[in-house]
Design a protein that fits this description.
The protein contains 16 helices and six strands. By secondary structure, the chain is of the alpha/beta class.
């Protein structure tokens, strides 16, 4: 599936910036709220942007690389956590309810067959990816199908009225896939991109580094090769949930939605998408800095300052959900705060 993301129309930028600067505050005093309001106004090409029907989609998939003992939890936990989400008991459920977010749970490639449930969206590509230490994680056909299926879902949610969407993940072993992709696309040493994930010990992290280094040596893929063919990097090392997040982000940007980038896993999907369509970044707001060490390095390479730093490393789209009040505040001050002229307050002396 091909995506064509237009660059932002910046014709309103000076007007938006002037509107922000004329609010009853010192210039820049609202910090990241100001840059966020500007970004949302540009995405919507409006001096009075609105956030309608926010969606967070959590994509779940299993990873063959867990055969190499790179995770602190067994792969069965992926399915168990999906059932927890369906029952409303996950952290993302709590935060989505709290902040009025429509939560979608998608089976992208969970290993086991999940029971039929009207709250579960079944888009299973296969029963988990293959072990990328030994070969490609997925076939080209599977990768393309994952990109397409998530794009179709995002189209449906947009058609139903959403103009802002965040992406979450659930998948034991997915920090291994994300570390591979972030190392390649952000040009970070693989050893620095690898972290404890769900709670590996120091020895466990050392083992994980050695396993992933062997997977990199299997292909000999370099950053230049990944940039030249991002789809190849995705199918070699990705997960079905990462591929679906990538396709969903690309389609959301294509539709002019505000795209919320969560933590380590979602950022790996973003980097793949940005390599495919550089204009993707114009539509993205990075919601939080994960405590997974490779995430801070990736954000630094992207020259991005996320909205939150709560030392979280859970995934599930929790950072995107927690950022929703900040996003609402950014739009609210732009639309509702008095200007110096409105309030008859003297402005800054020249």
């Amino acid at each position: 599936m091909r995506f064509e993301i237009s660059p932002l129309d910046t014709s309103l930028q000076s007007q938006l910036q002037s509107k922000i600067d004329q609010k009853t505050k010192p210039p820049g005093a609202l910090g990241l709220l100001e840059t966020t309001a500007l970004r949302i106004g540009l995405i919507q090409a409006s001096l009075n942007p609105v956030l309608n029907h926010p969606v967070i989609a959590v994509f779940a998939g299993d990873h063959g690389v867990t055969e190499e003992n790179v995770s602190a939890f067994p792969s069965e936990v992926t399915a168990q956590m999906v059932l927890n989400f369906l029952g409303g008991g996950g952290a993302i459920n709590v935060f989505a309810r709290q902040h009025g977010v429509d939560l979608k749970i998608v089976d992208a490639g969970v290993k086991v067959a999940l029971p039929a449930d009207e709250r579960l969206i079944d888009r299973k590509i296969a029963a988990g990816t293959d072990n990328f230490v030994r070969g490609c994680a997925m076939s080209a056909e599977q990768c393309d199908e994952a990109l397409m299926q998530s794009a179709l879902l995002v189209s449906d949610w947009h058609q139903a009225g959403s103009n802002i969407i965040g992406f979450g993940d659930m998948g034991i072993g997915n920090t291994s896939s994300a570390a591979m992709l972030i190392a390649l696309f952000a040009e970070i040493p693989l050893a620095d991109a690898v972290g404890p994930g769900a709670g590996l010990s120091t020895d466990g992290v050392d083992h994980k580094r050695a396993v992933l280094q062997g997977a990199l040596e299997r292909t000999g893929m370099t950053a230049a090769m990944a940039r030249e063919s991002p789809r190849s990097a995705l199918l070699e090392y990705g997960g079905f949930e990462i591929a679906m997040i990538c396709g969903g982000m690309l389609r959301a940007a294509e539709l002019g939605m505000v795209v919320l980038v969560d933590g380590f896993i979602a950022t790996s999907a973003f980097l793949c998408g940005q390599a495919m369509q550089p204009n993707l970044s114009d539509y993205c707001v990075f919601t939080h800095r994960s405590a997974e060490p490779g995430h801070a390095l990736a954000l630094s390479q992207l020259n991005v300052e996320p909205l939150l730093d709560l030392k979280m490393r859970l995934g599930e789209g929790t950072g995107a959900a927690m950022a929703m009040p900040v996003l609402y505040s950014a739009v609210a001050f732009l639309n509702e705060m008095s200007s110096f002229a409105d309030a008859q307050v003297s402005g800054k002396k020249v």
